[in-house]
Amino acid sequence: MTLKSEIINGAYSRIRVSGLTVQATPEDVALALDRLEDLAAELESINICIGYNFESSPDVNSETEVDRKFKSMLESNLAVRVLSDFGKQVPQSLGLLASGTLSTAASITASKSIQEVQYPQRMPIGSGNSRGGQYRRYQPPSQLPPNECATHIIKIGEVSDFEESFKTYLSGETITSYVITADSGLSVESSSNDDPIISYRIKALTNTSEGVWQQVKVEVTTSTGRIEIRVINFEVQSVPAVS
Question: What is d(CA 60, CA 7) in angstroms, rounded to the nearest whole number?
Fold first, then answer.
């Protein structure tokens, strides 16, 4: 993994190549860290899900928890933002790099955030289709999970591993116990306490309808008795047919 300080140093390195020769002061580093947190939050808000490690009190020595393939995107886009703080114009080469790497990141993460399109309610269900009941003529409404980075997508019959980190929640504490429950369309196959991470394996049951919004609840109790509950959304999708 890459440290936040490495992203910041990389951004200032790109800035120096772009003509800004001053060395970053501690204040400049703190400013860049704040800009980096803002950048990561904006990416998540538009469903560019890179798994950035958000902290209540950001630390430059913390890991970003971002895959290396997104490193150049974070560095170049952070450099663009920091340049404006120095009253400098963004060189064309840096601007093109930042834009290009951002587009690449959007393409890489698109498959993780795109929801299946549901039939419009005004569309007839068709002859012989009993979906929604014998006397229903049109498609029933479908409830979709939030289309956001935190929503996992899982195929019917698929078994996948997931993690829920409580690192930023814990304050000198440890996880002493935990409970994981799931909606009827999902099965918790196994789980473990890898303090500060709860790891668990989920199976999407074959009797689950596609597009159904399922949830998993992870409840942990800390060594000081505090309780934290996380609810994770899952969208269950059908397995694409092989032509």
Answer: 9
| Chain centre to alpha carbon of residue 128 | 40
What's the whole-number average pLDDT of the chain?
Answer: 82
Enumerate the β-bridge partners of residue 166. none
What global pTM score does this model have? 0.59
Report d(CA 212, CA 183) in Å as an integer: 11
Exposure of 128 in the CB half-sphere (CA atoms within 13 A): 0
Closest CA to 204 of 184, 218, 224: 184
Residue 89 has pLDDT above 80, yes or no: yes
Q: For the chain, which domains are there?
A: 4-112 (1.10.3230.20), 152-237 (2.60.40.10)
Distances (CA, A) of 131 to 88, 183, 206: 60, 22, 18
Least confident of 126-135, 167-176, 231-240: 126-135
